[in-house]
Amino acid sequence: ERDQFFGGTGNTGSTLTGKLIARCYTVSQDGVICTRECRKQDEDVGDEVDEVTGLESLGNSAVDFFSGGKSGTASDLPVECGVDQAHDLVNCRWGTTSRHYFSANSSTQDVVSTSYSAEHSLLVVGFSTGLFGLYELPSMSNIHTLSLSHSTIGTVSINPSAEWLAFGCPKTQQLLIWEWRSETYILKQSGHAYGMRCLAYSPDGIVVATGGEDGTIKLWNSQSGFCYVTMPKTHTAACTAVEFANPTVVLSSSLDGTVRAHDLHRYRNFKTYTSDIPCQFISMAVDKSGEVVCAGSAEPFRICVWSVQTGKLTDVLSGHMGPVSGLAFHPVRGTLASSSWDGTCKVWDLYKSDSTPETFENSNDVVCVAFRPDGNQICSGTIRGLLRFWDVDDGSLVCEIDGQKDIKGGRKMNDRTTSDNNASSRYFTSITYSADGTCLLAGGNSKYVCIYEISQQILLKKFQISFNRSLDGVLDELNSKNLGDGGPVDDEHDSADEGNDLAPHLPGAKRADDGTRKSRVEVLTTQVAFSPTGREWSTVSGEGLHVYSLDDDLIFDPMALTEAVTPGAVQANLRKRKYGMALLMSLHLNEYALVKSVIEDTPYDSIATVVRSIGQEHVGNLIQFISKAMEDSPHIEYYLQWCLELLQTHGLLMERHRGKYLRAFRALFRVVQSRYVDLKSICDDNKYSLDFLESQAKLLFTQETQT
Q: What is the DSSP letter of 298?
């Protein structure tokens, strides 16, 4: 039996009253649902009465002992105070009243996931064949059945109103929300089939392009988190890097030995760049003008240079003695920095054919490299967790940061040492500078992403990207019962999480697949990137794309607060009709409910005056609050007047500081556009109805005049 659901509140064939559990449903993996009801045992006369009373007394004593309550029977409690569930079940017996089958051929499809709405008596069942069914209990009437995909539906859920059904398909990385009454999709999202591997921000910071192990390219909205385009699959192997050549062109490299250019207007691959000999590209970089693209190969150890416009291979850079692990272009000049497993970083001048590259020697294999935004400094990361900063002009070593102990943590299944003593296997595989060049963001084969301040060489903060205990390396300690003198007794049971799939199984027959997974996905970050706006950064891990932002406007931020700025003072100013002061106080307190009440209490004629009293430091917050309040408000014209006054008063300020107010303005535009679409459909219907009535009136008038 996979799941159990409790339903029924009241008398359902038993003597239970009130909201005590009277019925439950059990669903088995082979497609059988059983209805079980709770009944009181009949009390007969004679010796059986004493025997039943004695058993009930013992049962109640046991319940009181484990719950810490006062000993006594359920019959000792007053009727008006009710009987709790534990005492009432002492003398009850559960019995099967009905049995139903989802499918006659249970050998071809298994029940994988279920969800039950007790309020509406609806059961959602997901099957291994990609089919789901909606049933009404207890009659087991089939209301709705649909095939979503060819893969297993791993999880299902039903919302409180029982109108929307959510489905998750782990194999295809799909999330679906289905409205079964109208039979329409509310939300349909799909991730990379085998996980993400690389990412890149668009020049405006709105779009994030990701490449996956399945060879596909996806475009995500960094604010909403939704994938809105999946490029047609052209790569035959995993993508290793993606870059924006300009706002409308995305370049991607792959292990299939090609670099492909994708058009973001038509969403197609319009150019393919290949090498003269077969190779696997593991790194890529595009210059700031978008005219030159370079890709580094694993073997042979060289860098290929193409012209983006013509697609011709213009140059091949040789000199590394190991795989070219990283590439980065100078922000201003036409120089290229490359890192390799041979322990060197080289700086190439692409526009001088006879120039010799400058070499920066490292003590270990170099796995990543990055230019500072001003181009005067290079950072390289080695497999020892060491970050080295070089001056580009004179080639001198500026400073070093040892980050090995900063990212240590997490013990993997096969580790023979503790997480504290296993820091040697942790290092950074991706690094990037902040927009101002003062900080460095670094991530690698660890559960942490670190931010360093370069001039002081200190760790500012580190983020744990995942707390998913099913991933390998999240837990710091192993289960002590599976540890011996020489390490873990059994790698399969090497986990502190007793509830995972790797826990010891009980002996016995099992009708389902008896194969157990011997390994788990490792927690790590494959790439990190800062947004061009400098307000957010992203990282790619085994769980997907993680976006961290500073623009969280609805968090309490006590700016310019005094003892006089209180919700009571806001209401007092509203009563005195000081709407501008009340709005400023509410914006200082940064509470959505308070700001909304002040906005809606402001008279229509006073909106312009109030908006002019708002300083530029509060414009972004006010736009965010208006956007959120307008989403479900019926006062559309009233909020549109607020929007109009804001644009007329602060439009020039928003234009000069576009990057600062872009996020708030996009949120406002999205809400206005959504309300426009809703209102347009209503107006079209009303216009059609009025035209119909007018034509009918003219027709009747014509008929009356003729008669």
A: S
